[in-house]
Specification:
By secondary structure, the chain is mainly alpha-helical. It is 66% helix and 0% strand.
């Protein structure tokens, strides 16, 4: 993991910051365009990135994922994960990581780390589901970690694990796109 593990400052408390940004990176973060009339983001710019919520940091990181500045996006993802205060914020952190790492899937280390974040999100899904439904209601949600991991396994020819992930997604009633998981499950079962 080289670069990724070097982003952690071992032994430092949260106050000492999980990640340190260069002056250039801080300038890039501070100068992300804000839409006119977006008072939330205009006010947020007055604070340091270290004082922001996990969800805000994720939005900033997503900007750099789109800009293909993956190193800065990774640093922000680490910061966001350390700032997460509950299972809902952590779920969205994991999804940021999954998106960021999957975009770099040609690198085997990034793909393996993407798989690990998919597994983390899937393992925490029952807690996320309970908390999310208690807060926002019972609307089915698209949960990318199941779909992404099933696709990765399928592309690697690991049809048994792809089938397990699709079947697991189908076992949860509040995951959207059940018809897609059923089609994918039928397809990979035919290859086993």
């Amino acid at each position: 993991m080289g670069i990724l593990s070097s982003l952690f400052n071992n032994g430092k408390s949260h106050e000492a910051h999980v990640v340190e940004f260069t002056k250039e990176e801080m300038s890039l973060i501070k100068n992300i365009p804000v839409m006119p009339g977006d008072t939330f983001n205009q006010q947020a710019r007055k604070k340091s990135i270290y004082e922001q919520s996990s969800m805000y940091i994720q939005g900033v990181a997503a900007h750099f994922v789109s800009a293909k500045n993956y190193l800065l996006a990774e640093k922000l993802a680490f910061l966001s994960e350390s700032a997460a205060k509950n299972v809902i914020e952590l779920h969205y952190c994991y999804n940021l990581w999954i998106d960021l790492l999957y975009k770099q899937r040609d690198n085997p280390d990034k793909l393996n780390l993407c798989i690990e974040y998919c597994k983390k999100d899937i393992a925490s899904y029952p807690d996320f589901d309970r908390a999310n439904r208690a807060t926002y209601g019972n609307a089915p949600l698209h949960i990318p970690s199941f779909e992404r991991l099933a696709i990765i396994y399928e592309k690697c020819g690991d049809y048994k694990n792809a089938a397990k992930i699709n079947a697991l997604a189908l076992s949860y009633p509040y995951i959207a796109k059940h018809e897609n998981y059923q089609k994918r499950l039928d397809k990979v079962k035919a290859k086993i």
